Fold:
Amino acid sequence: MFGLRSSVPEYLGDNIHPVAMLRNIWRHRTLIGRLSQRELAARYRGSMLGMVWAVLTPLLLLAVYTFVFRVVFKARWSMGSEEGGNGEFALLLFSGLILFNIFAECINRAPGLMLENISYIKKVVFPLEIIPVVVLLGALVNAGISFIVLAAFYGPVFGWPPLTAVLLPAMVLPLALLSLGLSWFLASAGVFLRDIRQFIGVAVTMLMFLSPIFYPASALPEDLRLLTLLNPLTPALEQARGVLFWGQLPDAGLWLLSLAYGLAAAWLGYAWFVKTRKGFADVV
Structure:
């Protein structure tokens, strides 16, 4: 089923170098694709609106956040010499939420992933390391749907997007790698430390408000701005907005550094997962 025979040698081995990580994902690409389709279908199965919720949910959150921060707290987003209107503020906020939700969806689900798939651990030889990849792909699909919604409102508010908008996938890549690496680590840790699930929910909520989603990093005082740059989500959020709204080419050095961090996080998370998965069956 799902081509499990091809997964046996890699599953029984302990190849943890970066090339093995990429090769393992590529080897199981068909299985990952099928599981991703099943994951998306199961998410909305039984609901009257189905996939429409993938559009409605971010729009409803956007409306609430825009009202609270723009109308109640009178938040502003400086765009050159202009003061952004409600539509501009909403789309800037929406873009940040889309990117953050990629990270949040992966991290919130990671600690419980193995516990949700105990049958794969005990009954069959299965490449457990692909399960976080499946969750990441689901998060990216949801983000893609949200960006289509954003594109529908972009034209009336901002006009034609700048040419730099084609670089948006490259801005998302380091964030996706970071999310995957942390997902591997937390999926393993969640098997042995059940309380981590509750802690992660609180930590992700805190990180949302500490990241430049509702405000630009430049709005912070100088002494706090350096601390914000230590947030691994900041480069992705800031540079994605730059290429999408203001036609700014990304800082090559900062992007390469973010990519290096993302690759390192992915490899370390993968290595930890591979080294610890032998003990999953004894715990669950």
Observations:
- The longest strand covers residues 78-79.
